[in-house]
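Hi R.,

As promised on Friday, here is the backbone we talked about, encoded as structure tokens. Could you run it through your design pipeline when you get a chance and send me back a sequence?
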């Protein structure tokens, strides 16, 4: 799960916000992908907003900072589609439009992401390939019980919805 918001960065967005919630291996990988993308695009800045408790209050406080001009992010990449949808609701409640004012992209490609309005742009993982890799590692472990554990990173791909606005290239 090395998700990255490369689709956003190349659409002209230069200040990105990454919102993560519960800290677990997959969310750490998502953050790694986000930070790597920011590093790969000179002139792009990334901010990580870690929301562990009191999600609505912290999310709304960051959106208020943006409304006041204390933050300049134009795109939000979230740890999962559920957080993206929650963020879209909070942005709308604050008078910010998606994607006209702020672009939003989720992660996981959940079925309901396409059913909201506007349909969510999201990142998808090839779950069949991930399953094949897991079986291969399991068979290796059974054949070689003392084998060194391996970590497999899986590529993700963007699934275009209607929540990303292209900005002029600077």
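Update: got your reply. Pasting your designed sequence below so it's all in one thread:
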């Amino acid at each position: 799960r090395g998700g990255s918001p490369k689709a956003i960065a190349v659409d002209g967005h230069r200040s990105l916000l990454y919102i993560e919630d519960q800290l677990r291996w997959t969310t750490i990988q998502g953050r790694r992908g986000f930070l790597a993308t920011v590093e790969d695009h000179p002139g792009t800045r990334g901010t990580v907003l870690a929301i562990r408790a009191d999600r609505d209050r912290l999310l709304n406080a960051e959106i208020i900072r943006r409304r006041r001009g204390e933050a300049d992010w134009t795109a939000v990449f979230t740890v999962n589609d559920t957080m993206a949808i929650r963020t879209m609701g909070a942005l709308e409640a604050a008078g910010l439009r998606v994607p006209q004012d702020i672009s939003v992209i989720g992660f996981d490609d959940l079925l309901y992401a396409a059913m909201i309005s506007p349909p969510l742009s999201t990142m998808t993982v090839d779950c069949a390939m991930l399953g094949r890799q897991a079986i291969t590692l399991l068979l290796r472990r059974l054949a070689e019980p003392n084998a060194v554990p391996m970590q497999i990173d899986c590529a993700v791909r963007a699934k275009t919805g209607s929540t990303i606005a292209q900005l002029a290239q600077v």
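One thing I noticed while checking it: Strands lie at 15-20, 45-50, 75-78, 103-107, 121-125, 156-159.

Thanks again,
M.
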